[in-house]
Write a structure and sequence with these properties.
Shape: globular
Number of strands: 0
Order of helices and strands: HHHHHHHHH
Distance between the termini: 54 Å
Number of domains: 2
Radius of gyration: 20 Å
């Protein structure tokens, strides 16, 4: 079905609610609102990669809300999307700040760092590199790998922090994340070398 037939918000909402032409509706949402939502993230200290993650999560969340008949139409679809995206981005910012604070506390609690400022700088750079590599995998993979390897949580402990149905589904996703990471590193030898050096620091 051509996009021009979805020229009214009510038409789009109704199709989503009835689970009809979902791909066409998603294309419409991307076409009409992606740039608008991207500007919101970019204007609030985010990157284009951040915006991509936020917008994907926003569209999926809005689809579920509409299909569960929880969208009452008290605001325009544009306003509703903005509200959902803003909340998702605020949560991500809080998580990012928390991660940075944990990293800083972890570093400050190591007494041997005080005797060697250069070593402390290396560790900061290593943490930043590791974080950037995980960022490139997307928010879901970053969340899983960060909690599994950095926070030393088991898959059972990680499950409540995700939207996965059970531990097996989470395990499969973790495997896919590691496969993606391995493939990415194989394609970028310099990144792979830098990451291994960073990991050796710890």
């Amino acid at each position: 079905m051509a996009l021009f037939t979805l020229n009214k918000e009510n038409d789009v909402i109704e199709k989503i609610r009835k689970n009809i032409d979902i791909n066409t509706c998603l294309k419409y949402l991307y076409k009409e609102f992606y740039s608008f939502l991207e500007r919101m993230v970019l204007n609030n200290s985010g990157t284009r990669e951040d915006a991509e993650d936020v917008i994907q999560e926003t569209f999926l969340a809005v689809l579920q809300i509409i299909q569960n008949d929880k969208f009452k139409g008290e605001s325009s679809l544009k306003s509703f999307l903005y509200s959902v995206a803003k909340n998702i981005w605020l949560v991500k910012i809080k998580k990012q700040n928390a991660e940075r604070n944990r990293a800083n506390i972890w570093i400050e609690d190591k007494p041997e760092f005080e005797a060697d400022i250069n070593e402390q700088i290396k560790k900061n750079e290593a943490l930043e590199l590791i974080s950037n590599v995980l960022d490139s995998l997307g928010s879901v993979c970053k969340n899983i790998l960060n909690k599994y390897y950095y926070e030393n949580l088991s898959l059972k402990e990680i499950l409540p922090f995700t939207d996965f149905e059970n531990e097996q589904v989470l395990r499969n996703k973790k495997s896919k994340c590691m496969k993606t990471l391995t493939e990415k590193l194989e394609q970028h030898p310099k990144m792979k070398e830098s990451l291994y050096k960073a990991l050796k620091i710890f």
